[in-house]
Design a protein that fits this description.
Helices cover 80% and strands 0% of the residues. With 173 residues, the protein is mainly alpha-helical.
């Protein structure tokens, strides 16, 4: 992408957002990586690297949260299996499932805060208020992930992310 035009960046954001909402394991990951690239170029286009920095921090916190979730799940499952020979208790079940879920929830929520900051800046530059709504929906959804309904709100936020990129005005007034 040697020419940074708003139309090209908009198209890159649309393609990345479509991949992010695909029902698969690896395709959304490719979408998030493409979105990371798109946000980087939006930052360069608008000459404000805070857009990218906040998005990158969001990406890192979310990725670390998923990795820690998997690691704590494996570690606590191993301890749980050793303890099942002795006795099963609610506390041991909490250690197996509760701790990994809380760790994931915490990191995803922190990541959503940085995502909201990034999208608020992008909304200012693109003059598309939909990015603010997208960031807010994903933040609210992340906070409510602990009670499961948040997953639906995050997914709606991802759909609004796509809509936000579609409705970026390309003509400057």
């Amino acid at each position: 992408m040697n020419k940074l035009s708003l139309e090209n960046l908009k198209l890159l954001g649309i393609i990345a957002s479509i991949l992010c909402i695909m029902p698969s394991d690896l395709i959304p990951l490719a979408g998030y990586l493409l979105l990371l690239i798109a946000i980087y170029y939006f930052s360069k286009f608008y000459k404000d690297m805070k857009i990218f920095t906040n998005f990158l921090l969001s990406f890192i916190f979310s990725l670390v949260g998923v990795i820690l979730f998997i690691l704590t799940l494996f570690l606590t499952t191993g301890q749980f299996l050793q303890n099942t020979l002795i006795r099963i208790s609610y506390l041991s079940l909490f250690h197996v499932f509760g701790i990994p879920i809380i760790v994931l929830w915490l990191f995803l929520t922190i990541g959503a805060i940085f995502l909201k900051r990034s999208y608020n800046l992008l909304a200012e530059y693109t003059k598309s208020e939909l990015f603010k709504l997208t960031g807010l929906l994903i933040l609210i959804g992340s906070v409510l992930l602990i009670v499961i309904i948040g997953a639906l709100i995050v997914y709606v936020g991802l759909i609004f992310q796509l809509i936000s990129f579609v409705f970026i005005p390309t003509k400057r007034k």
